[in-house]
Amino acid sequence: MTKLIIRRLIWTIPVILLVIFMTFILMRQIAGNPFRTSERAIPVEIQRNLERKFGLDKPWYEQYWQYVQNVATFDLGPSLVLRNRDVNDIVKEHFKVSLELGALSFLFAFFFGVLIGALSGLRANSWVDYTAMFVSNVGYALPSFLVATLLIYFFALQWDVGLPTSGWDTWQSKILPVIALGLAPMAAFARLVRGTMLETLQQDYIRTARAKGLRWRRVVGLHVLRNSMIPVITAAGPTLGFLITGSFVIEQIFAIPGIGRYYVTAVTARDYSVVMGLTVLLAIIVILANMVVDILYGFLDPRTRDART
Amino acid sequence: MIIDPREAPTPTIAGDVVSPDGTGSAGAPLRQSNLWRDAWRRYIRNRAALAAGVVFILMLLFVIVWPIISPYDPNEIDFSARSQPPSLEHPFGTDTFGRDLMTRAAVGGRVSIGIGFAATIAILLIGVTYGSISGFVGGRLDNGMMRVLDALYGLPYLPFAIIVTQIFGNVTFWTMVVALSIVSWFTTARIVRGQVITLKENDYIRAARAVGARWHRVLGRHVLPNTLGVLIIAIFLELPGVILGEAILSFIGLGISPPDASWGQMANEGRAAYRTSPHIIAVPSIMIATLILSANFIADGLRDALDPRTRET
Q1: Which one of A219, A303, B39, B156 counts the least CB within 10 Å of its CB?
Q2: Is cis: bond before B259, omega within 30 of 0?
């Protein structure tokens, strides 16, 4: 197990290097040299000085290596538009909001998804099952902006239950965004749990457990649920990454001061160093989430310990 | 393993007229059966998938035909008919500029579905090339290529799509296609590789190799045609993601630029007025949801029909 964790940690390093590399190459295609494309006429000497100051006169691989070193020391560079701020300030200010939104949505999706999936798996082809699967299929297909708008329209405007529709401070203001963001992954979890549960219920060891007289409740808790969790954990990694990084739409609609909303602002303002810094940060989070999942996977399913790295 | 009733009868030979000596009686039409006919039979027995297929085709017809026969111009501004709720005159209502939403939904659907299909085809092309090379060559190359793919899975989808659109300056139809396909071909590549590796172990592939068929013949003649089923399923698995991706980018204002309509773009315009005229955002959103829902059901139905082994119980 320790071996798996170490191997997995080491494997993360080239992945992060590659992802930073790709971001770097892509960003170079848009950014060009910020001091050359400026509308203001800057004397050539000053331009040279600026380029030297920011290391832009060096070849690209040295710039890349410099950037990697900066990222390794948690320095994501300065903002090009906001003169006295750097990307770290923006991360400090906005990131915890996105993290909280993502984590809460994940918990919501995981809890209700597993619950709904397990209920319909245990009562397959009953009306509970059909209702749950109908809701899941629809929830999976609805775009998040429609879910958000519907929630705001009905809960805040039509029925007026007193839930705020913007901001991120009181717990009431967090309910609607979390549901809006968590609904699609919840539906995905429910479908997944139902499918694997039906499969698990067919297994011999379930029959054995029942045959030796275990109570049904215990069979479900001990054998069925646990073994149905494995594919759910596999899907949980990308989902967690998606939730933390993918809240662009929800943060816009609910005016939540998170990183997704800031990202869009930065793209519109052409603040490319911020765009690049945030992209690298988001990528690293996704990679780390996948790593955690792989390690968890090794815990849950011993067979995968040697095969996967 | 539950035996599905849809699978139980084998209608392949049942209806054929077979004479006692074992040869087909002269003149009697032989009922041929093949993979596609069986798949089609299985597909149409799946009522949800069949309904989804009908809805999907109706939506395609709507976006293709309606702009031609509609009495309204999708971009014609009419301030005397602003933000009208659905009526006989305007079945989907009008937007804040008084434009007919039904016509705009059809025109926007052309863009959204067009981007969806174009990007899906691009995804398949990249995925098949990458996956079949990786799976067919095998060994170290396969290992390396899969590691790269693992790393690419770490890319956050939306930010990378946004960066790619920014490279081209202003965002057009083809920019969106490029951006969305670049960030979403990984799954298809993996599926194709898996299929190619499974196929490679089959006896007929070994036989083809044993008789001296060269690699491109084995790949082109025996391996790739057998991945066709997986690819058809992949179309309907990828399409919803791409259409949703386009909608989200346009919705946050980084997609197709107005006045060109796409469903995401229309939803973005409707957002400002959702308190007073919720139908403006509802129309494009429901179009997107319907299309994605039907594509999901079609994908499920196709998987059951084309690949009975992997069918979910």
Answers
A1: A303
A2: yes
B173 — phi, psi (to 5°)?
Answer: -50, -50
CB contact under 8 A, A143 and B163: no
Cβ-nearest to A198 among B167, B297, B313: B313
Q: How far is CA B157 from CA A80, A193, B150, B154, B184, in A?
A: 24, 25, 14, 9, 8
- C-beta atoms surrounding A270 within 10 Å: 15
Q: CA A214, CA B229: separation in Å to the nearest integer?
A: 44
The answer to whether the beta carbons of residues B59 and B290 sit under 8 Å apart is yes
Q: Assess whether pLDDT exceeds 50 at residue B24.
A: no
Dist CA B312 CA B69 (whole Å): 43
Residue A146's closest chain B neighbor by CA? B285
pLDDT at B126: 93
Q: Mind listing the domains of chain A with CATH numbers?
A: 89-269 (1.10.3720.10)
- How far apart are alpha carbons A272 and A201 in whole angstroms? 52
Looking at residue A22, its pLDDT comes to 82
Beta carbons of A27 and B163 less than 8 Å apart: yes
The three-class DSSP label of residue A78 is: strand
A184: which residues sit within 8 A by CB, 6+ positions away?
A139, A140, A142, A144, A147
Taking a C-beta distance cutoff of 8 angstroms, is the pair A305, A1 a contact? yes
Nearest-5° Cα angle at B216, B126 to B237: 30
What letter represents residue B303's amino acid?
R
CA A239 distance to own-chain centroid: 6
Higher-confidence position of B162 and A71: B162
Of B150, B163, B285, the CB nearest to A279: B163
Mean pLDDT of the residues in chain A: 78
The pLDDT tens digits for B186-202 are 888 988 888 888 888 88
Distance in Å, alpha carbon of B163 to nearest chain A alpha carbon: 7
- Whole-angstrom distance, CA of residue B227 vs CA of residue B211: 22
Give the pLDDT score at B120.
Answer: 93
Tokens of A156: 């805040």
Is residue B164 within 8 Å of residue B226, measured between CB atoms? no
CA atoms within 13 A on the CB side of A305: 12
The fraction of chain A above a pLDDT of 70, given in percent, is 87
Average pLDDT over residues B164-193: 85
CA distance B79 to B99: 9
What backbone torsions phi and psi does residue B45 show, to the nearest 5 degrees?
Answer: -80, -15
CB-based contacts of A132, cutoff 8 Å, min separation 6: A116, A117, A119, A120, A190, A194
Single-letter amino acid code for the residue at B293 = L
In this structure, what token pair is assigned to residue B165? 């659109």
Determine the longest span between alpha carbons in chain B, in angstroms.
82
| B307 close to B229: Cβ distance less than 8 angstroms | yes
Q: Residue A211 and residue A194: Cα distance in Å, rounded?
A: 23
Q: How many residues does chain B have?
A: 313
pLDDT at res. B9: 42
The CA-CA-CA angle for residues B193, B199, B203, to 5°, reads: 155
